[in-house]
Amino acid sequence: MRVIAGTARRHNLQTVSGDATRPTSDRIKETLFNMLNPYLEGATFLDLFAGSGQIGIEALSRGAKEAVFVENGREAVSVIEYNLEHTKLKSNAQLIPSDVLTALRRLEGKYVFDYIFMDPPYNQLLEKQVLEYLKSSSLIDKTSVIIVEASLETRFDYAEDLGFRIVQRKEYKTSMHIFLEMQ
What we know:
Largest sheet: 7 strands, mixed
Order of helices and strands: HEHEHEHEHEEE
Oligomer: single chain
Structural class: alpha/beta
Helix content: 25-40%
Number of helices: 5
């Protein structure tokens, strides 16, 4: 796993041992960032269920002005700290070692994120809990984009009822990215 482009290009990143996390493959990450790259310069980026931090690190490397990483796994937090230090992107990053909903409450009033990326454990409806929280949060506005990495079986038929619209869906072999905005 590595940083694909930008100021930290070609830096190899550590990952969490075992199968507790599912690192996004470089190929899928490249596809995602090819879509986001024109809009990242100066953006604020929130990486939820951050794992190794590779998505937020890629955003910083490509010009995001700040990224906040939320992760509650002890080993994963250590990996994110190492990866931010290794890539020299730590000064533009904030790491919150916490569960996601607690972290979101702590961030209220401090940010309006341009991008929120989440890659929760599959098929546990954690993305729905986050979207239920975000629907009335000050952390997003009409221009914010929420990206969810999920299994192909994950349904988002509730999104409209929560006040979100799906603006894009990109499917891969075993997963997908869903792009949502407020209605």
